[in-house]
Amino acid sequence: MTKHKDNISRRKFIGQSCAAVGYTTLFSSLINLKAIAASAVDNSANLNGDYKALVYVMLHGGNDSYNMLIPQGNTEYNEYAATRSNLAIPQNDLLQINPIISDGRSFGVHPSMANMQQLFENSNLAFVSNVGTLIEPSTKTELQNESVKSPLGLFSHSDQQQQWHTGRPHERTNIGWGGRIADLIQSMNSNTNISMNISLHGTNVFQRGNQIIPYSIKNSGGVGISGYGGQNNFDQLKTQALDAMMDKDYQDIYKNTYVNTIKSSNDSSLEFQAAVDEVSEFTTVKPQYNDLANQLKMVAKTIAARDTLGFSRQIFYVEVHGWDHHDELILNHANKLAVVNDALSYFNDLMTELNTSDCVTTFSISDFARTLTSNGNGTDHAWGGNAFAMGGSVNGKNIYGNYPSLALNSDLTFFDGVLIPTTAADLYMAELAIWFGVSYSDLNMIFPNLSNFYDTNTNIPPLGFMNIT
Fold it and tell me: Is the pTM of this model over 0.70?
């Protein structure tokens, strides 16, 4: 099949600087003091004191999301199949979904997503279509003429991950939109020892604020000093020695600061672990050999311990690696979607068991979508793609945004099957922020390009996929 070519240089479009800022992963105990010491800024959001949590699911590597949500009607499917060639999912294998609001087209999801299909049909899950990082609305002609600004390092993993984390595609920064939100509303939580931003996958840009730092935990719980408080003789001796060092008042200010950091961090870890250890075992059965489910189980345990820990607002970060499918797409993508499908169903059942379904919203983000065209056996880095949001407050059973034509030479495709986003990532993220409690007046501070797509003075949700009251 002859691939459509556009009169635009990929290298020129991306620009000369695609290198992202590097970030060193720090041990939780060394960064926790900043979370402890941070004083939350004045909270101007419209908050009513109830519990809410956001769960950010990072599909690391670039999800081929046009094989996740697929047109099913004959005309649109034939267009999809012609463009995707050897990577097309057979039409008869698609699992049909039935959106409440229809534009006349029919859609299905990947055959590995049977549980997600049911979540959609039960109005607990929605899709947001052709969403991507944008600085301003952009057409194909404007991009070719370079008359609009395009995101920095557009097809770079590190740059695009950073921009989804920060909501700032025009600059490189290590402050994330989850961190900025936490800066605003951390004062809602009575706990001053543990950050409201909790990560199951190490430190990350998304949860880092000007004052708030993510608190890193493991699937098993807090990250403390190994063996501290243990019952065997060696651990008891270790504990006594560490207590002696940590209780000492050092004359050297640097030694004193270091010891206080370790002590405060260890105390926080013990506090966190004691709280989650008190949570009763769930009756919902966890999928085996599923790391995302393991991460989400600890998220659920932390949510269950919210009153003990003193949290009214929390933001969680979980991550699934392995989505950069330049080769063996069909098999590998199916396996990854199955992991997400099983884990989301499990987590939804856990939220039902805890009676917190309406309080918790889980949403997906990935670096970017993949090219519509095959590179032989896989796909390459692209731009606009499909995401999902799940929870009792999601206005589910709908597709939000504009699902694009998948014809290769449409007004939205350029290079070798790259789709230009028609829904700005800012709109997707801002709606989640509003539901979480951020006031409309604070949105532009968190997402500085939002006004290019949305008037915050309307007080109308940007996309409508969240039930905002």
Answer: yes
